Amino acid sequence: MSYTIEAVATIRSPYTQKFGIPRQPHLVPAARCRIEFAPQFGADSVRGLEGFGYIWVQFVFHDALAEGWAQMVRPPRLGGRKKVGVFASRSPHRPNHLGLSLLKLEAVGQENGRVFLECSGADLLDGTPVVDVKPYIPFVEARPDAAAGFAAEAPPQLRVKWQPESGADRLDEAFRLLIEQSIAQDPRPAYQDIPGREYAMAVGGADVRFLIEEGCARIIAVSGSLKDANGSK
User: Fold this and answer.
1) Residue 225: CB partners within 8 Å, gap ≥ 6?
2) Which of 56, 58, 88, 174 has its CA 20 to 30 A from that of 104?
3) Could you report the per-residue pLDDT of 117-163, keeping only the tens digit for each?
4) What is the pTM of this model?
5) Beta strands 159-162 and 216-224: pairing type?
6) What distance lies between CA 171 and its chain's CA centroid?
7) For the segment 1-49, what is each residue's pLDDT rounded down to a tens digit?
């Protein structure tokens, strides 16, 4: 049996490329996004949602559609070498390419006749199609004692330092935090550790260049059209 699912909203995020996106929500609290609903979904469709602190966002891994799916995948948490079944992972390479993210709900609003949700802790690519939004209900969905398989602990973080010539003095605090927290998650492929290699990441309209050596990321330069942590000018 087949079903047709249409997007109800679109994500506006500071992450405009896959490299650098947090691998899970809330690893980068400074990463804010806006969920913009399609015109047919008015204020009544989100009435009462403002009373909840978090929301479940179901979306499509649209940038991975052309890559297809696989029975076995290599989770970054296992070093990118050991395989597990696709349904034992959160890989984007799934049969239906559906993702699920738990975001902190910061605000519910309306602008130019369009309903939107402001969220933080985002791990979503800009332009991501959203297929559903549901309120998070702690008493039924919070299970801190549940077995967590190979992801029982939070991943280690890199130390982050700004080089004097990096341009950090031109950035506001929120944007600096977004960059620092994003790089601290170590966006490199899990199997890659090449000392001295320079990496480039696009975030919030800026191009960020950095090096990673001995557990420390050194930010070399930030250039481009700088935006704030919401991804808006």
Assistant:
1) 205, 206, 233
2) 88
3) 999 999 999 999 999 999 999 999 999 999 999 888 888 899 999 99
4) 0.90
5) parallel
6) 21
7) 888 999 999 999 999 999 999 999 999 999 999 999 999 999 999 999 9
**CB contact at 8 A, 170 and 226:** yes
Tell me the DSSP string of 168-182.
Answer: GGGS-HHHHHHHHHH
User: Residue 132: is it exposed, middle or buried by C-beta count within 10 angstroms (0-12/13-18/19+)?
Assistant: middle
User: What residue type is 216 in one-letter code?
Assistant: C
* Neighbouring residues of 4: CB distance < 8 A, sequence distance ≥ 6: none
Cα separation, 68 vs 59, in Å, equals 16
How far apart CA 117 and CA 36 sit, in angstroms, is 7
Pair 59, 130: CB distance under 8 Å: yes
